[in-house]
């Protein structure tokens, strides 16, 4: 899980770091300034001691008397000197007490005749250990009597230690006050409004389109809140518009569905009226003939026979529609497709419409069983055989219908428009490693007049037929397509005008329940 640092934490961390760095630098520079001021004060005190000794030397007639050197050394010790060295004008050391430092140290800017150096000073080491003062006693320059002594800076170190403690406490307290006030104003001015924006956006996303944020702050956050509210207003308006349009679309769809349904019912009623009207008209004529009388018995029997035939046509039309309106139940017994094909060919051979035609069967052995209704599927096959024979009625030469069965394999997910799955342990994997499903295909090929591309798109519509008047009702392929579809299969057609047609029934195979 990725750790996320919030803007509140980032801003507070920035305030803390900036405040600590600022207060630390202020404290450091303050300590350095105090230490330097104290060192300069101590240096001025040493310079004044040198000046006092010079005045005393001129008033006493010079340092020709050795006692004068001793008096001067005593005065220096009283003034706080640690190590002392005095030499006469000839350069001979008269008094030496303690060890003078060997290092150069930091040169402090003073007069040309008084040289003061600070020994052991630095940024981290404090004001230093001592001052090393070198100056001529008699003011005669390099050839006169000289004085060298050191002054300890221990007192300054103790004093600056107290200053450091004071500045540390001051820095901590001041930092806490600055951080506290910064966090308070930051939370009030930035964090709280941003959280309010976030909460409002979450509620809007949850469906509360009327949610808005306050705009009473005259700064960038207020401008952001104003822009947010404008965006929310536009979003609410767009969503309401979409909802209205969606409602209108739903209403239009319902109206279109109702109109389509009425149109379909109208077409169905017109088709039924057209198909039933012809035999009804014939029946009406036959009844008029019987009403007039005067006909012989043989003529009356002939009229009754024709009337019975027309009634049979009406009954067939009605039964076809009843078959479509009552989809078949899936049977429990598996069926051999090749056997059903053979039964259909045998049954259609005695049909008058199949006279003069023959069926050439090319059956693939070992087809898997399919779950279909034997009688209904035989009805489908007979219908396709009769259509093929009628298509070749106007063709000269032998009329042969080729009936072939085969096994097809397709990706199992292809029919649902999904990407085929791959399995390593499936016995139905094809050569490409894709899970496949088996289908039994039965094709009926004729060399008849064929079907145009325009008619092929409507061939399975009810009451659509390419046959002449009295040649058919246009329900055979419609009913056959409905039966095959009810068992999870499909019928396809491939045809070219003048070259014949091939109708293929494809049924899912290998089912056991």
Kindly summarize this structure in a few lines.
This protein is of the alpha+beta class and 513 residues long.
Q: Could you explain the architecture of this structure?
A:
By secondary structure, the chain is of the alpha+beta class. Among the domains are: about 160 residues, Beta-Lactamase (2-Layer Sandwich); about 170 residues, Heat Shock Protein 90 (2-Layer Sandwich), CATH 3.30.565. The strands form two sheets. Strands 2-1-6-5-4-3 form a six-stranded antiparallel β-sheet, with helices on one face. A five-stranded mixed β-sheet has the order 7-8-9-11-10. Helix 7 links the parallel strand 7 and strand 8. Helix 3 packs parallel to helix 4. The relative contact order is 0.06. About 5% of the residues have low confidence.
What is the makeup of the main sheet? 6 strands, antiparallel
List the quaternary state of the chains: single chain
Q: What proportion of the residues is helical, as a percent range?
A: 40-55%
CATH architecture of the domain at 329-420 and 428-508, by name, is 2-Layer Sandwich
Using the CA coordinates, give the radius of gyration: 59 Å
Going by helix content, strand content and strand pairing, the class is alpha+beta
Report the β-strand fraction as a percent range. 15-25%
CATH superfamily of the domain at 329-420 and 428-508: Histidine kinase-like ATPase, C-terminal domain
- H and E string: HHEEEEEEHHHHEHEEHHEE
Low-confidence stretches: 416-430
What would you call the shape? Answer: rod-shaped
- Count every beta strand, where a strand is a DSSP E run of 2 or more residues: 11
By CATH, the topology of the domain at 329-420 and 428-508 is Heat Shock Protein 90
CATH class category label of the domain at 329-420 and 428-508: Alpha Beta
Query: Major sheet: order of its strands?
Result: 2-1-6-5-4-3
How many helices in DSSP terms?
9
Task: State the end-to-end CA separation.
Answer: 49 Å
What is the averaged pLDDT score?
A: 76
């Amino acid at each position: 899980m990725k750790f996320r640092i919030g803007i509140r934490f980032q801003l507070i961390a920035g305030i803390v770091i900036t405040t600590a760095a600022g207060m630390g630098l202020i404290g450091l520079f303050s300590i350095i300034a105090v230490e330097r001021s104290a060192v300069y004060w101590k240096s001025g005190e040493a310079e004044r001691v040198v000046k006092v000794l010079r005045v005393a030397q001129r008033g006493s007639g010079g340092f020709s008397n050795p006692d004068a050197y001793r008096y001067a050394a005593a005065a220096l010790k009283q003034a706080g000197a640690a190590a002392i060295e005095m030499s006469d004008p000839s350069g001979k050391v008269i008094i030496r007490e303690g060890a003078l430092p060997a290092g150069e140290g930091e040169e402090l800017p003073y007069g040309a005749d008084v040289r003061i150096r600070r020994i052991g000073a630095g940024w981290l080491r404090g004001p230093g250990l001592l001052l090393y003062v070198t100056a001529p006693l008699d003011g005669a320059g390099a050839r006169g009597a000289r004085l060298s002594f050191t002054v300890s800076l221990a007192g300054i170190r103790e004093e600056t230690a107290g200053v450091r403690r004071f500045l540390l406490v001051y820095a901590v307290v001041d930092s806490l006050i600055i951080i506290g006030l910064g966090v308070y104003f930051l939370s009030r001015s930035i964090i709280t409004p941003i959280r309010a924006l976030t909460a409002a956006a979450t509620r809007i996303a949850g469906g509360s389109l009327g949610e808005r944020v306050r705009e009473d702050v005259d700064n960038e956050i207020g401008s952001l809140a104003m822009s947010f509210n404008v965006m929310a207003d536009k979003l609410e308006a767009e969503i309401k518009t979409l909802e209205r349009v969606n409602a209108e679309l739903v209403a239009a769809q319902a109206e279109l569905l109702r109109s389509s349904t009425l149109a379909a019912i109208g077409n169905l009623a017109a088709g039924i009226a057209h198909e039933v009207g012809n035999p009804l008209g014939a029946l009406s004529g036959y009844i008029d003939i019987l009403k007039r009388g005067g006909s012989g018995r043989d003529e009356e029997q002939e009229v009754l026979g024709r009337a019975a035939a027309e009634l049979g046509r009406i009954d067939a039309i009605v039964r076809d529609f009843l078959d479509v309106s009552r989809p078949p139940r899936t049977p429990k017994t598996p069926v051999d497709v090749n056997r059903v094909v053979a039964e259909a060919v045998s049954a259609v051979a005695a049909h008058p419409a199949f006279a003069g035609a023959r069926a050439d069967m090319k059956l693939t052995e070992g087809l898997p069983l399919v779950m279909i209704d034997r009688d209904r599927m035989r009805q489908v096959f007979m219908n396709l055989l009769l259509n093929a024979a009628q298509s070749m009625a106007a063709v000269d030469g032998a009329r042969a219908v080729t009936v072939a069965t085969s096994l097809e394999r397709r990706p199992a997910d292809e029919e649902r428009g999904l990407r085929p799955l791959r399995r390593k342990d499936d016995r139905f994997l094809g050569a490409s490693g894709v899970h496949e499903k088996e289908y039994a295909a039965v094709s009926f090929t004729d060399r008849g007049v064929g079907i145009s591309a325009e008619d092929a798109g409507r061939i399975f519509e009810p009451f659509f037929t390419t046959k002449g008047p009295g040649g058919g009702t246009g329900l055979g392929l419609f009913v056959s397509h409905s039966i095959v579809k009810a068992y999870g299969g499909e019928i396809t057609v491939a045809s070219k005008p003048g070259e014949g047609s091939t109708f293929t029934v494809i049924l899912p195979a290998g089912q056991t329940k």
